[in-house]
Specification:
Structural class: alpha/beta
Radius of gyration: 18 Å
Strand content: 15-25%
Number of helices: 5
Helix content: 25-40%
Strand order of the largest sheet: 1-3-6
Shape: globular
Distance between the termini: 44 Å
Order of helices and strands: HEEHEEHEHEEHE
């Protein structure tokens, strides 16, 4: 039976094993959650930004993603044989190969099923899972990706914007956009209240942006 390993510890265990065995390169899946919760009031973000994991108001999900990625970079920095590239996707949606549809797709499903009672003041980016997969492959293949982070986000929406799109598709259970906007507490896994724009500043180095 495989031991229970926390999501935060898993990258450390894998990277330590890879370094020990002399693996040439690793591509780590992180998240925009490790970038956007800076608590500085900014609304535009790049790969140079980091979530403030020590801030009291940083949600646990953001903190976990940030600490795991920072630990990965720390471990890679102790040697020179194994290279690292990191993919930081926004909300990942699209076809799935298992019953685990992911956080972003589960959120969309809850909207369609009528489990979200109104429109929170929420701004979130989305990207197709197939683009995320392609970015991982290219980051592994291209030396230009060594030592870099890559934001993967196709576009951002306010909750009200994509809720209206559901209405146009006649998904009757989608939340009524006329409802008062909800407080962000029930959506504490997501960054709410402010515009969050993430720029694919480095993606063009390895992936042709459409």
């Amino acid at each position: 039976m495989a031991p229970n390993v926390s999501p935060q510890a898993a990258p450390r265990i894998i990277i330590e094993a890879a370094i020990k065995e002399g693996v040439k390169k690793l591509v780590l899946t992180s998240s925009c959650a490790a970038i956007t919760e800076t608590h500085t009031g900014q609304t535009d973000f790049s790969e140079d930004d980091w979530t403030d994991a020590a801030h009291a108001q940083t949600p646990a999900y953001y903190k976990s993603k940030t600490l795991a990625e920072q630990k990965a970079w720390d471990l890679i920095g102790t040697q020179s044989t194994t290279k690292l590239a990191v993919i930081n996707p926004a909300g990942v949606i699209g076809p799935t190969l298992s019953d685990d549809i992911g956080t972003a797709s589960e959120f969309v499903l809850q909207i369609i099923d009528g489990k979200v009672p109104g429109c929170p003041k929420l701004h979130i980016g989305f990207v197709d899972v197939r683009d995320v997969a392609a970015a991982h492959i290219l980051a592994m293949q291209k030396s230009e990706a060594d030592g870099e982070r890559f934001i993967i986000s196709e576009r951002e929406f306010w909750f009200k914007e994509f809720s209206k799109r559901f209405e146009k598709c006649r998904l009757r259970e989608s939340p009524d956009t006329r409802n008062a906007e909800l407080a962000g507490q029930i959506f504490r896994l997501f960054r709410s209240g402010n515009t969050t724009n993430v720029a694919n500043g480095r993606l063009g180095e390895i992936y042709p942006i459409r």
